[in-house]
User: Fold Type I-E CRISPR-associated endoribonuclease Cas2 from Exilibacterium tricleocarpae.
Amino acid sequence: MSMVVVVTEAVPPRLRGRLAVWLLEVRAGVYVGNVSRRIREMLWQQVDTLAEDGNVVMAWSTNTESGFEFTTYGQNRREPVDLDGLRLVKFMPVLE
Assistant:
């Protein structure tokens, strides 16, 4: 089991409901919980299926150098990049 945090933005209510079955919604669109890898992967499949035009980030604790891993879904100014095995976030320019 590992700590999981999911942050959603502009996703359909049915995805928010699915996440709320397994995780606690501590703020609007912010979910936390302690789940197994299997449940975490199932939740991400739900994100992939139901998020539509929204965006989502999921972070979970691991035994990596940083102590966590994360993945993203949808359009966002923050883009994950790998720098010698360390996951960082690059900010994209504002499009007008």
